[in-house]
Amino acid sequence: SALAAFASEVFARQSNIALGATSEASFAIALSPFYVVKAAGTHTALGGINLPNWLLFAVLAAFVTRLFLLGAASALSGYHAAETKNLRITGLVTAAIAMPLISMGIFSQFYGMKHESEFQHDLTAGVLLAFLPMLMLVLLPFLTCSGSDGEKKFASNGSFSFREAIRGTPAGALPYVLMLLGISALGVLGGFVAVVGALPGPLFLSTIVWAIGFWVFSWSLGRWASSATTELRSARTLHVAAMVVVFGLPLPFLALIDAQQESALWSLYPVFPTILEEPGSWVGRVAMGVALLAIGGIVAYAAVRKQASRRQEASAA
Fold first, then answer.
1. At a CB cut-off of 8 Å and minimum separation 6, what does 198 contact?
2. How many CA atoms, within 13 angstroms, populate the side-chain half-sphere of residue 120?
3. What's the CA gap between 205 and 187, in Å, rounded?
4. Predicted local confidence at residue 290, as pLDDT
5. Rounded to whole angstroms, what are the CA distances from 96 to 11, 89, 182, 185, 226?
6. 41-71 as b/e, with b when 16 or more CB fall inside 10 Å?
7. How far apart are CA 288 and CA 26, in angstroms?
8. Among residues 154, 145, 153, which one has the least CA distance to residue 174?
9. Distance (Å, rounded) from C-alpha 313 to C-alpha 122?
10. Which of 11, 177, 221, 309 is most buried, most CB within 10 Å of its CB?
11. Got the DSSP string for 86-123?
C-alpha cells in the first residue's frame, strides 16, 4: 500500500542518517525519539536556506509544550474560560506551523524530485493529508461528546457554531475539526508547491473530499453517542467504541479474508480508498467521501432530533 511504501522509505532514510550518510534530512525525523539525537546535526533545505533541524524541532516543541500546559489548565477551568480559548488558538497555530514544515521536509527528502513521477508526488500529498490529521481521533470524543452530568462547558448547546469552536463547547467541535483540517490541507499544499513548484493533481483534491466526509462521519458518531446516554463519560466511551468498531475492527478480518485486497468487501472500508496507489483511485476517494458525508449527516440529524425530544420530555415532566 501507499502507506507501507511511505513508511519503508522513511525507515530507509532514517537508517542512512543514523549511519551518518548525509547531513541533510527531513525535519520529520526529529519527531522520532530513536533518531532525535542523530538528527541534531542535520538540516532541512527550505527555500534554498539550510535550517538546522534542532531549531525547527525546538519551535515545534515549544508549541507542543504550550498545548499540554494549556490542556491541563483548560481541563481545570470552567465555562468559556480564557485557557480553553488559548488552547484552541494554539492548536490552530501549531498546525499552521507544523504541517508546512513536515510536508516540505518529506517532499524534499523522502521523494526526490528528479526520479519520482508527478503521480507519486500527488500520492504522497494525499497520504500526508489523509493520515497526519489522524492524531485528532484521540481527542475527538473530548471535543464532540456532551452530557448533562458534567460541567456547563460540556452541556449540549447545538450542533454547529464557529464562535463556539474557539470557546470549546460541543457545538464548536465540528467547526474546529474542519478548521484544523483546512489548515492541514493548506499546509500540505504549501509544502507541495514550495518543493515541487506545481499544484497537486486530482488525487490530492479527492483526498480533501474524502477527509471532509471522514471527519464529519467521525464527529457524527460522537453526536450519536451523546444522544444514546445523558452521561458524559458514557458518551465518550461509546464514541471511542464506535470508532474502534468502524475503523479498527474490520481491518484484521478483511486482511484474513483477502490479504491481496481484491475483494469487493474492501470497498466498504472507509479508509481503504486512501491506501490505493492506482491513478484512478481518486474516484473511489470522492465516492467514499460523499458517502461518509451523507451518512454522517443522517446520523447527526437523528441524534439532534433524539436530544431535542429528550429535552421536551424533561421540560414537560
1. 118, 192
2. 14
3. 14
4. 96
5. 26, 11, 10, 10, 31
6. ebbbebeeeebebbebbeebeebeebbeebb
7. 32
8. 145
9. 52
10. 221
11. HHHHHHHHHHHHHHHHHHHHHHHHTS-TTTS-HHHHHH
DSSP states of 129-168: HHHGGGGHHHHHHHHH---SSS-GGGS---S--HHHHHHT
- Reported confidence tier of residue 111, pLDDT bands at 50, 70, 90: low
How confident is residue 15, by pLDDT bands cut at 50, 70 and 90?
A: very low
| Cβ–Cβ < 8 Å for 119, 203 | yes
- Given a contact cutoff of 8 angstroms between Cβ atoms, the answer to whether 59 and 148 are in contact is no
Q: Give 253-295 as a DSSP string.
A: HHHHH-TTS-SGGGGGSTTGGGG--SGGGHHHHHHHHHHHHHH
Q: Which three cell numbers stand for residue 299?
A: 446520523
> CA angle at residue 7 from 251 to 211, to 5 degrees?
55
Cell of 294: 451523507
Q: Where are the beta strands (DSSP E) in the chain?
A: 43-46, 49-52
Which amino acid does the sequence have at 195? V
Q: Which residue has the higher pLDDT, 9 or 221?
A: 221
Count of positions (residues) in the chain: 317
pTM equals 0.82
Hey, what's the cell of 203?
488525487
The C-alpha cell 433524539 sits at 306
For the CA atoms of 107, 185, 289, 163, the dihedral, rounded to the nearest 10 degrees, stands at 160
- The whole-angstrom separation of Cα 70 and Cα 90 is 9
- Residue 144 near residue 222, CB atoms below 8 Å: yes
| CB burial of residue 200 (10 Å; 0-12, 13-18, 19+) | buried
The answer to whether 292 touches 217, Cβ cutoff 8 Å, is: yes
At 160, which amino acid appears? Answer: F
- For the chain, give the mean pLDDT: 82
Tell me if residue 173 falls in helix, strand or coil: helix
